[in-house]
Amino acid sequence: MKLSKILVANRGEIALRVMRSAREMGIATVAVYSEADRQALHVRYADEAVCIGPAPSGQSYLRGDKIIEACRQTGAEAIHPGYGFLSENAAFAREVSQAGLIFIGPSPESIQTMGSKLAAKAAAAQYNIPMVPGSAQAITDVSAAKSICRTIGYPVLIKASAGGGGKGMRVVERESEFEEQMQRAVSEAVSAFGDGSVFIEKYITSPKHIEIQVLGDQLGNIVHLFERECSIQRRHQKVVEEAPSSVLTPQIREAMGRSAVDVARACGYYGAGTVEFIVDEGLNYYFLEMNTRLQVEHPVTELITGVDLVKEQIRIAQGETLAFRQEDLQIRGHAIESRVYAEDPQNGFLPDIGRLQTYIRPQGPGIRVDDGFEQGMDIPIYYDPMIAKLVTYGQTRTDAINRMKRAIEEYQITGVETTLPFCHFVMQHEAFLSGQFDTHFVSRYFTPGLLQKAAEPLEAAIAAALIAMLHEGHQKPEQEITQSARSVSRWRERR
Ligand code: ADP
Question: For the chain, which residues make up each domain, given as ranges?
C-alpha cells in the first residue's frame, strides 16, 4: 500500500529530516507540536500541523492518544516516531495499529523484546552471538550475585535491564562496594524506568562502542549497512560518531554484520534498527543491546552507503521488499558526525539553554547539517538540548576530518555554549587521528583548559555578532554593540 500522508510524532531536527524524505517521495506530512514549539521549523515545514498540548513532553509529545487523534483529524495513514519520545514504546506501536494506522517501525513484539536488555540477550542467545560475561537474569540475591562477580572478576558493571540513555549503570571495583552499588542501581532503575531489574556484566576496561545498522523488510529479508564507531562519549552518551570504524578488519566487520543480522532475526525484526556492540582491545566484540528505531547518528551510514534510511523505513512500512541484497551494499568514503548540543564543555557538559543570538551554518562540499533552529530562536528547556548534527563526508577519513575542522570553524553560534569546540578538539587529538581511542576519551584526554587553543580570534566572533544584528535589522547604538559582543560565546572570550 502506497502511503499518501504521514504524521511525524516528533520535533526538531529529526521531524524535519523525516519530512524531507517523505516530501521527496511525494508523501504529504503532518507535524504535531507542543505550545512551546508553535514557531518551530518542523511546524512550518509540514503541510499541516496540529497542536497536541502544553510544553512538557508528558503533556504533548508523549501523548499517544492525542497523536492518534491528530491522524484522524488530518487523514494521516501512518506515524513516523523519529527517535526518543514514543519511538520505542511497544504499547504505543500497538495502539497505532489497533487504530487502523501504520507504525513506521518494527512490530510491537520486537520493540518489547529488545526494550529489555535481558530479554534481548535471551533472544540473541539462540544464535551464538558473543555476549559480555555476566548474569543472564536479573539479580535479586546479593550473595548469588557476588559469586557471579567472583567468577567473572572485578570490575563489574551493574545495569538496569530497562535502561537507556546511559542511565542506571554502576561500575563496581571490588566486592566490598557491591551491595551498596546494587541497592543504588535498583533504586535508580525504579525511579528512571519503573522497573528495578538489574543485572551484571563484566566491565570492559578499554572498550569501543561500535554498532551495526540493519534493515529488514516484512518478508524476512534482513541486511546490515556496516558499522558506526560511537566511542567518543560523555556521560555514556555519544558526541562524535563516524563510519566506517578505522580499526575493524574486513573479517571482523563481516562477522559483526552477520551477528547483527542474527540478532535482528532473533526477534523477527523489520524496519531500521541498530545492534550495539562493545569491542575490547583485542577486537573481540560483544552484543550490548538493540535499538529498535532510527538512531541520531544514522546520517553517517547514509553518506557512506548512499541509502536514505528514512525512505527505506517508509518503503518497508508500505510492505515493499528490500530493493537490495547484502552483496549490493558497499562502503564508499568516510563520514563523521559531530553532535552540536547546547552544553558547556568547559563546565562538565552541563546544558546551557538560551537564545541563538548568532546562528550561521557552515556550507560547501561534503557538509550536511540536520538542525531544527534558526537564528534568534530559543532552545526550549523542556527537551533534549541538541541544536544540530553536523556531518561531513570525504573520500578518506583524513578528508572527512579536515572537512569537519573547517565546518566547525565556519559554524557561528553565539548566545549559548555548544559542544562544537569540544568536537574541534577531538578532530585534532592524536588518539582520535590514530583511531586508538575508547569510550574513556573524555576522562582520559579532555580538560576544559585545552579548548582555548581551538578558539577563534575574538574579533571574528565580534564581527559575526555584528553581522547577526544587522541581519536581524536592529542596528543598535555603539554602546549596545559592545555589550552584545560580550555576549558572544564565552568560550571564545576566554582565550
Ligand atoms: P544505554 O542503553 O543506557 O545507552 P548501553 O548498554 O547501550 O546503555 O551502554 C551505553 C554505554 O555504556 C556504552 O556505549 C559503553 O560506553 C558503556 N558500557 C556498556 N556496557 C559496558 C561494559 N560491559 N563494559 C564497559 N562499558 C560498557
Answer: 5-104, 133-202, 208-445, 455-492
